[in-house]
């Protein structure tokens, strides 16, 4: 219990850690670096899903459980996306007023963090050594640049640096609750473990392909984003092999 709590808290607080540089930033970063950060986090999440969550789901269940879990993850994320319209942090040209737009961004990011928290909790519920720590670390790495981009968006909407930092940090707090929920469900209902792991993988894959990769290719930086994506994959492969 203490391990999953610590892992989920550290993973969630990585959002705030990523937003921290906002307090000292003079000016703004280029689209190129934003795209590089997004692509790097996509590579990290891709590897965590394909080499961490899915293989472990197969160990607990089979192809049927993995398929059902994956499709459920994609279905839930699709439903959430329809309930909370996606607004591109950098490329939006909508006429939504500030208060409504900021609320949508915060709500979308918060909901987006729920499956990430679930993946951490489910991974800690498995009996395979260090999987929980690995997934928590991977999600934490993904959360850091996300927190930075959310805080940067809020500052561009004339919110103070400190308030933007606090809001960005708070969006990650939902991961703690989701992580504990995933942990308890799969701990007490053991047959849910393969479904839960595959569900988390499906949700992450949806986020990667639907959100992170398209956004990292939105400003003509496709080649740099591709290199960064591959570096993110290699980084996680090295990390997985070191556990």
From TrEMBL:
The keyword Methyltransferase does not apply. The chain crosses the membrane at residues 6-24, 36-54, 60-80, 101-122, 134-155, 162-185, 191-212, 224-242. The keyword Transmembrane helix applies. Keywords: Membrane, Transmembrane, Transmembrane helix. Its main location: membrane. Pfam families: Zip. It is a multi-pass membrane protein. It is found in: Membrane. PANTHER family: OS05G0316100 PROTEIN (PTHR11040:SF70), ZINC/IRON TRANSPORTER (PTHR11040). This is ZIP family zinc transporter.
